[in-house]
Design goal:
heterodimer, A: 112 residues, mainly beta, six-stranded mixed sheet, five-stranded antiparallel sheet, globular, B: 116 residues, seven-stranded mixed sheet, four-stranded antiparallel sheet
Chain lengths: 112, 116
């Protein structure tokens, strides 16, 4: 079983749509969780950290369910510029130290 | 702040040659740098953790004699792919963590290596 699993997509949605991505992780010792965004042929960039209480940053909402080892990202009112691959990332050693384990990513394509 | 650069951004070389990739933290000191590799449509995979002034720690399956890492200063780590072969063609990305061991990892823009 892969350590971090994501639906690869692609998700093709119209502008203004709401889209949700899911991610599961296998290591129950995972302590930190993140969503990164990666544009084609570019490095990944941190989108947001994910907390158990859930957190929101503008149009982006992230949720964590430790019991189910499940992470989600919700994007509301999609923009063309949201088109990218979204990477679910976990850190087993906690905080921002140690190794980051990346999922393969979910590709989002927002169409006009 | 927290800018990480990589050089070169892309390189094409012949099979059997060695290629050096530099990773620099431009406006901060990085005790630890990480080297990742990403094949097309695959996830980033950690290759090694590079600590300033000491030997790198390699992940399982990564040949330390093939991927030489040097972290001689708090702002520079280098990855040398020795005797490169076509299967080494990939996107190599470094990241740097602030000195003191806290804070997020900041990623470089990556180096695309193509071995003919």
């Amino acid at each position: 079983r892969k350590e971090v699993e994501q639906d690869p997509g692609p998700f093709n949605v119209p502008e203004g749509a709401t889209v949700a991505f899911n991610c599961t992780y296998s290591n129950s010792a995972s302590q930190s969780f993140f969503w990164y965004r990666q544009d084609c042929r570019k490095e990944p960039k941190l989108l947001m950290s994910v907390y158990s209480s859930g957190n929101e940053d503008g149009r982006f909402t992230a949720q964590l369910n430790r019991a189910s080892q499940y992470i989600s990202l919700l994007i509301r009112d999609s923009k063309l510029s949201d088109s990218a691959t979204y990477l679910c990332v976990v850190n087993i050693k906690g905080g921002s130290q140690g190794n980051l384990i990346f999922g393969k990513g979910t590709k989002l394509s927002v169409k006009p | 702040g927290a800018v990480v650069s990589q050089h070169p951004s892309w390189v094409i070389c012949k099979s059997g040659t060695s290629v050096k990739i530099e990773c620099r933290s431009l406006d901060f000191q990085a005790t630890t740098m990480f080297w990742y590799r990403q094949f097309p449509k695959q996830s980033l995979m950690l290759m090694a953790t590079s600590n300033e002034g000491s030997k790198a720690t390699y992940e399982q399956g990564v040949e330390k004699d093939k991927f030489l890492i040097n972290h001689a200063s708090l702002t520079l780590s280098t990855l040398t792919v020795t005797s490169a072969h076509p299967e080494d063609s990939s996107f190599y990305i470094c990241s740097a963590r602030l000195a003191g061991g806290v804070g997020t990892q900041y990623f470089g823009p990556g180096t695309r290596l193509t071995v003919l």
